[in-house]
């Protein structure tokens, strides 16, 4: 998606058709390196490691099995000799800040911690009444998660040793969890008694703040389905809304929606450039990318290639 106005950046993407991780130049779309993934597994998610020298890809195998693949971006090589680690099917995925531990949730919503040095995997207690896990995130020295539950959802916080520290019932159905500067952001969709929007979780454990994007009455007939939140500065958040083919703009300090960027096609996940001027959106529906001008609040370009790009992505510089 060439454009000369965009500051240089590099993308990590998953290509389902090529069964590989792609390292690509953002402004031009040129593929700089392609890393084959282990056969017999389907790619689920990706995260860059500390220093952006490595990438980690979670994969799902057969009969509830999973794996984690580590890729050296500097050497442009996938380390399949030490990987994949044998794991439960990894539905959700997060990394410790030092990159030494991976946190996973399986289809039953049960969290697991994987020591990346020893490959030892420990199973943690699932929050009471929780069902499917909608997101995991590491903030400071705590591991946070959001789960679906009867009538809505819940949030929970763990210590690094797997101790369940606290839980919080949510009257909404969470769809994702993101760490941004100074906050954790959980998107949510409608429950029988709620609309759709964003929950702001202060890291100090203070009461969460709810931002409504779509009221309950409107959500019943015209759902927006907030699927993912991203922020470069902790001041403004951008929410990918799958069903409304748009991105909601939220002032985090005021906890208010300040605008909408209409894309004309579904968006499932966002990654922002470091300067906060542009975003890349992926789509579960279209298997492509959209370049978004966040300053002028408009889409700039869409990819046109034969790659089948999955929802996970990351901007690494």
TrEMBL record:
SUPFAM superfamilies: YVTN repeat-like/Quinoprotein amine dehydrogenase (SSF50969)
The name this protein goes by in its record: Uncharacterized protein
């Amino acid at each position: 998606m060439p454009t000369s106005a965009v500051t240089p950046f590099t993308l990590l993407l998953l290509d389902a058709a090529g069964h590989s991780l792609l390292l690509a130049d953002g402004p031009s779309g040129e593929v700089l390196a392609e890393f084959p993934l282990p056969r017999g597994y389907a790619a689920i998610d990706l995260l860059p490691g500390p220093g952006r020298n490595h990438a980690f890809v979670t994969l799902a195998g057969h009969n509830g099995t999973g794996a984690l693949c580590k890729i050296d971006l500097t050497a442009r090589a996938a380390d399949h000799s030490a990987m994949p680690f044998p794991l439960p099917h990894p539905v959700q995925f997060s990394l410790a800040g030092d990159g030494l531990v991976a946190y996973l949730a399986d289809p039953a919503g049960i969290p697991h911690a994987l020591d990346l040095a020893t490959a030892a995997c420990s199973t943690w207690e699932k929050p009471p009444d929780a069902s499917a896990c909608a997101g995991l995130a590491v903030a400071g020295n705590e591991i946070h998660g959001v789960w679906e539950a009867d009538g809505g959802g819940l949030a929970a916080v763990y210590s690094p040793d797997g101790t369940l520290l606290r839980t919080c019932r949510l009257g909404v159905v969470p769809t994702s969890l993101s760490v941004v500067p100074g906050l954790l952001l959980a998107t949510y969709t409608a429950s029988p008694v709620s609309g759709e929007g964003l929950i702001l979780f202060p890291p100090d454990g203070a009461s969460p703040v709810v931002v409504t994007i779509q009221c309950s009455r409107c959500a019943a007939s015209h759902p927006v389905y907030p699927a993912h939140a991203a922020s470069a500065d902790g001041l403004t958040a951008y929410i990918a809304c799958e069903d409304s083919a748009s991105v909601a703009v939220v002032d985090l300090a005021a906890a208010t929606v300040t605008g909408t960027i209409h894309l004309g096609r579904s968006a499932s996940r966002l990654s922002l450039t470091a300067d906060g001027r542009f975003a890349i959106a992926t789509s579960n529906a279209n298997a492509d990318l959209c370049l978004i001008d966040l300053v002028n609040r408009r889409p700039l370009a869409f990819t046109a290639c034969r790659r089948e790009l999955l929802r996970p992505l990351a901007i690494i510089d």
